[in-house]
Amino acid sequence: MEREGLSSVSTSGLWPLASGFCPLVSNFLVPGLPIPFYHTLKIGLPVWGTLRRRWAAAPPDIVHVATEGPLGLAALRAARRLGLPVTSSFHTNFQHYGRHYGLNKLRATIMAYLRWFHNCTACTMVPTDELRAQLATHDFARLVVIARGVDADLFSLENRRDRLRARWGAAPGDPVFVYVGRLAAEKNLGLVVETFLLMQKIEPRARCVLVGDGPERMALEKKFPQFCFAGMQRGPELAAHYASADVFVFPSTTETFGNVVTEAMASGLVVLAFDYAAARQHIRTGVNGATVPLGDAGVFLAAAENLLAHRASWPALRAAARAAALDITWDKIVACFERELLQAQAGKSAGTAPVALTAADG
Q1: What is the pLDDT of residues 258-288, one digit of tens each?
Q2: Neighbours of 124 (CB within 10 A)
Q3: Rounded CA gap, 20 and 14, in Å?
Q4: Which region, left, alpha or beta, applies to residue 250 given φ > 0 means left and ψ of -120 to 50 means alpha?
């Protein structure tokens, strides 16, 4: 969580319920700084001393680290120094981002750091079997698949708004294509633009909407004034932007999962994405959306053209996407997460023991 240069830290205690245990989480804010080349995002500062003092005074049962940056490293060091069990999550393919920011030569170094970091924890939670297999080939240990759910009450067809569509210039029968996500180089925005331009060339009444913010927004707005730029949206407003569109275009190739895919499905959109991560897990082409081979831009554009040519199939695809999303419940996922926390607390995580921190790191 970020707010005016601050980042949050969560620590967990475990308190009993009739069915087992439930995490009791407390939050506090620490200073943060903008990420170089990406000033709309911030990283928490490495407040190792603060964490150590707080946790020494009121030890949590377990520390779960969801970031490998300076704050995450400080949390790992403080927890290990105090003898607290630590688990982690792998959320972002940082090793793939280098080529988009002139840091491709550091890819091996970044991967080595990520492997070291996660192998210092009792287990590393990943969202898909596919990602687990990929990381295992790079010698990541104790990998556990914990899938991700979607809030199907928030993201729903019920949030479709004709007034919002009208603001985009869309009449009731006009197709609306939407992208939701960071407006950043690693999201393959060039293919988003190509797809939108193709849709408007074939169907001049098509409207194309980008929801999100990031370092590429200003340049895109200046170059493509025919697109609608909705900026960052959250909560009910984000849900309304999803539901008021018709097709979700998502050509990113750097996701560990892609929560936006399941949010779009829950919102009843026709999803077009590459066949990996969340799309591979939940989309069946011709049944509840469309996927194409990872990285094949030509096939992606052809699939978009095919979807536009078969608009009569959209109602069935949208209904099936919504139905599939209703099966992705958070209750089951939280139960799996709870199980892993309890096993780590009890020292029963599968695999060999975490590697030791060096004297300089500890």
Answers
A1: 999 999 999 999 999 999 999 999 999 999 9
A2: 25
A3: 10
A4: beta
CA distance 77 to 119: 13
Contact of 351 with 141, CB cutoff 8 Å: yes
Burial class of residue 173 in the structure, from the number of CB atoms within 10 Å of its CB (0-12 exposed, 13-18 middle, 19+ buried): exposed
| Inter-CA distances, 138 with 92, 129, 134, 222, 358, Å | 15, 15, 7, 41, 21
What tokens were used for 334?
């939280």
Tokens for 337, please give them.
Answer: 């997460």
What per-residue confidence (pLDDT) applies to 360? 34
C-alpha span between 117 and 72 (Å, rounded): 9
What pLDDT sits at residue 106?
76
Are residues 69 and 82 in contact, defined by beta-carbon separation less than 8 angstroms?
A: no
How many beta carbons lie within 10 A of that of residue 226, not counting itself? 11
Paired residues of 42 in beta bridges: 34
Map tokens 């319920």 to a residue: 17
The Cα–Cα gap between 187 and 190 comes to 9
CA–CA distance, 141 with 352 (Å, rounded to integer): 8
The pair of structure tokens assigned to 232 is: 């960052």
Structure tokens at 125: 């939670």
Q: What is the DSSP letter of 186?
A: G
Q: Backbone phi, then psi, for 177, in 5-degree steps?
A: -105, 135
Task: Please answer whether residues 350 and 142 qualify as being in contact, where contact means their C-beta atoms are separated by less than 8 angstroms.
Answer: yes
Question: Of 219-223, 235-239, 248-252, 325-329, where does mean pLDDT reach its minimum?
Answer: 325-329
Q: In what order do the strands lie in the sheet with 63-65?
A: 63-65, 86-89, 124-126, 143-145
Place of tokens 């790191």: 361
Helix (H) or strand (E) holding 322: helix 314-326
Q: Where are the beta strands (DSSP E) in the chain?
A: 2-3, 6-17, 20-35, 38-44, 63-65, 86-89, 124-126, 143-145, 176-180, 207-211, 228-231, 247-250, 270-274, 290-292
